[in-house]
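Exercise 7.
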Amino acid sequence: MTIQLSDVGASVSGSHVQFGIYLPGVTPGRGYSVEAFAIHLDDQFDPAVPAQSFTMNYTGGPHDLWSANGPLTGPGNFGAAGLHLYRYRLLRNGNPVVFAFADPFAREAGPGTFSAFTVGGTPFAWTDGSYQTPALQDLVVYELNVDEFAKDFYGVIKRLDYLSSLGVNVLELMPFTNVKEDTEWGYTPLAYLAADDRYGGLQGLKMLVNACHARDIAVILDAVYAHAHPEFAYNLAYEATGLPNPMMGPFVGEFFPGRPGTDYSKEFTQDYFKIVNQYWLDELHLDGFRYDYVPGMWKSPTGPGYAKLTFETYQYSKGIPRFQDPAGHSRIIQCAEHLPDPRGVMSSTYSNTAWSNELMDKMADTAIWRYVDEQLAYLFDPQLTGYPTHYSNPATGDSFPVAPFQYVETHDNPRQLARIAPSELRDLIGERYGDRSRFYLLQPYAIGQFMGKGVPMLWQGQELGENWGMAHWGLGRNLYPRDVHWEYFYDQYGQALIRLYRRLGQLRKSLRAVNASGPFFYVNDASHRSQQVIVFWRSVLATATEPEQYVLVYLNFSEQPQEIWMQIPKAGIWVEQLDHGEPTPQPDLVANHAGEWCPVTVPSHYGSVFLL
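Solution. The predicted structure, written as tokens, is:
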């Protein structure tokens, strides 16, 4: 690896600041020179205080390093404690070629396209030394956008107890690296190593991760490694010079034709994202990555793009204590958004999980057309639809469990209520809200999602009956704010759903039989499907300290209560769990012998979960 983070970015040592940037092919012999400009944040709009200029020296090396080291003294507040903003300027024969561009190696960011560094302050004191990343089979994921969920990292910290009450032990944070626009999902990065200042920057992110780890909650980054903002340094500089671009090329995939994307056939690109991942693991203690749009990074199952990056990241994680599993593998979370082939990417790369839209889309179809079929039942156990349960690499000896994320809503799609129960109300871009009075349509799917196999994932506000619509294309998708309607928490619909989700989260956490990879038996009965009901059961063997456990699940997707007959797999008193302890609980189930035919009446658009 030829990229060295110690050479690049901005760093403060004593009374001096050092700048460094790799610009392959940009050399003095071609007439080029580089300058850095910096100013204290408090002086940014003071006309009497100019930015400090630093002439960069050409150091050379395999990636043509430019660097400067200068004193932290100057007019105004320059050099005083606090955030300093900086950018670079590229010149040829003394004339600006690119007037200003952000540092692709900056560890901090300011507003807009400014990179940043901090003078003063004390090193962050981590307290997560004993923390262990949760095992794959125990994961419950919550996807959130920091701005829409709680405005900044500090706001998310205040809601961690709320998330814990849902059984959540992984936060999948939508991209938090700095972007140019204030309202932005984060999918056009300007720098890959800097947390956005709007969210609380580097310090705020460290505080969030540390607070999550104190509650045994993992944190993963939605990593946007297939494309960048048009003003990303390696877009601007090489478009202006016409020199061969060391990192960017044509975007690969169906989006943004003709726009720049990362080119993984280039060694610089491979090294860049390798050190980016290592930085997030080492410096920010992240637990892994959800890789956005893997087709844009894909070369082959053994190629230099996505496959190589996840392999090298996995190998690196083996040396980090929080990832060590007693079975000998690393618990790092590497989730692929490879929607064309989630099974293939989990079978052939070091991805221990993946996004898949199948359950979400099937939910919309079955809810709209009011039917139940075998395919819906199979989707509650991804193994029945061809997903692997383990990945093994004979060449390295690596082996670890795998399971897809199971979700019914994501940031990329309208809320399910907007799809299956649209109202007449529309938002400012003309998209319909969902009718929240029909929240009950969501309930059996939620029960199946948590009681089935795979890794359950919630999209922020799903548990409250959030009902935003979504434009299919254009700026209305990722430049339109959709803040969580926290007032829904207090109304009758939100209260009903949050009660159910909290109970499901508690069951997922406490029941050994209910996890991502344990046994799953679908009761394939045509009479059940005619009643729009699905029944399955799960079990786990006894251990030296814990007894055998059975969980029997009924899901009713119909408009009426349904009396369901089936042969109960084991004798005993089966205690209903969803309403256990409520004023009017569902009755328990008594089977006098294994295989006894017993009826269970399941409420409309709801379910029953029995524990033996």
